[in-house]
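ERR on first pass: missing label on line 2. Operator R.T. fixed the label and resubmitted. Corrected input:
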Amino acid sequence: MKKDLLKLTAVLGLIMVCLALGSCGESRSPFAGKYRSVEPFAGKNYVDLELKEDGKGTWTHAGKSTEFTWMVNEGRIWIYTKTGAILIVTPGNGGKLLSADMTADWHPGCPPGSCVNFRRVPEGG
Amino acid sequence: MAEEEKRSTDRVVDGLKLCQLGQEVVVQAGERIVTQGETPEFFYVIQAGRVKVFRESVEGIRTDLTELSSGSYFGEVALVTGQPRTASVEAMEEARLIKVSKDEFDHLLDHNPQLARHIIHQLSQWLVVGDRRLESEVVHQVKLRQVSWFDYVLMIGLSIILALVVNIYNDNRIPLIHGWGQKSDVPEITLTQARELYQKNGAIVVDARKSAFYNQQHIKGATNLPLILFDLMYPLFQFTVAQTEGAKDKTIIVYGGSFSRRFDLELARLLKTKGMEHVVTLRDYQGWQQAFPLEGQEPKTPPALPLGIPGYMEWLPVGIFLLLLIPPIWRSPYLAVAGRILLGFIFVSFALSKIMRPAVFALNVVDYGMMPSFGVNLWALVLPWAELVVGLFLILGIRTRAAATLIAAMNIIFIVGLVDAIFHHLPINCGCVGEVGEPVNWWKVTKNAGMLVMCVQIFLYDRLFVLDRGGFTLRDRQI
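pass 2 clean. output:
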């Protein structure tokens, strides 16, 4: 009985270690900040994109905000929506420009017509 | 008892010295004196030093039988039975031995009843001890090879409990059953009615599926509003509708539901909450392909993203196919250990990539269209935890046969899903490694088949480095 408990503890301990290791990702710092779409989206208003250091973020368009989480993987920004969609955002110009692939098909690129481009908003601006 | 035996053995050795039989030899530490399987020629008596008696199986598993020191003897069994040597003997330190030839040994037995009796006594003792050892080993092996229902209950139960508990505290939690208890307030129309509206240009047709499915095939002229991107893409849809002539009088027909998820119904509800009227879905929600004119592009494979180390490791079990050609390696328990660690690592890393974002994995499950909608979220929650738990059981060597069968079952399910997706040209990612866009192709099927073969090998031949019933089993096990 004691042995079985030890085994179970070993398994649970390893699971915790694995989860801790699995949650590690690349630093978000270079891309954290506020961005605004280069062009108006859907014919009206710009999209404001905020990427916070803690991995949370907001997509605001026409006064309506949508929350999401994000992480950096192999130099690209992965945006996770509550519904399970993933948007892959490709940074350019040292993180000053972002191209969001709106197909949610995990493209590493950004197909024309399904791409929203953002420019970083200077701090305080 | 041991003292008496020692005195008796000493008398035998003294007797040998008196008779001046044999020749004295000196062997160095590590030197092999007798080799298992060879034809016996000599009987040995130890005058000084220590030797180790051991057996080696065809697979190279060494079992240490005993250690002998000054006053003991060995090599008599093969001389008496006339069979090849039953064990090997190696000097543990520099040892001095009396080496007696077969003729001398036979002569000695004929003229030394004391020695003959002692050898018979010794052989009888060995027989009794051997029987006990055999029984103990059989019991151990039987226990080790037992697969009980409890093993499966333990692993699956642990996975379910962990999945449910973590889901409660997970920021990205999902409901256990998607859409449970939701009543449909969206009107339905028949395919015939929908076609009439479409032909009279009285409808705006909206495809609720992912872009890749839409791009591959959709109702001619339909607009794509993927349900999963509703919050972000609705303004664009609203803008498109606003540009459409006579939009206010048109019925919005939403389609795109599948066996695994009613995207159409959910999107229709959301559109109604946004104030859109005249939103309907199709009663026969999967029949649109036969009822409407279609358009789309040729099926194309979604672009792949790098998989990392687990991707390369997946190829290793494929190499196991080649090992099938070499029976001694195929049966090796060391191969089973290597396979266990390999499969364990692959499954743990795959699980970790999916475990914290079950909604993403649930959509992957939906993409295959094989799981009924009520089971999608449960499957998406429990499967990654099962991969993690079973992977760890394999690595640690706990209930490995049951773990191997569970991993084999998972691989069979994955293979069936992949083959189905290939034949139906589904524009989907594998979903095997969480969010990595790994394409669905025959290479992926081959990798899974390799892992399946590895599971069979583990099930049949795994018995070493096992933290299981009967304790930890190591290579040089003392019996």
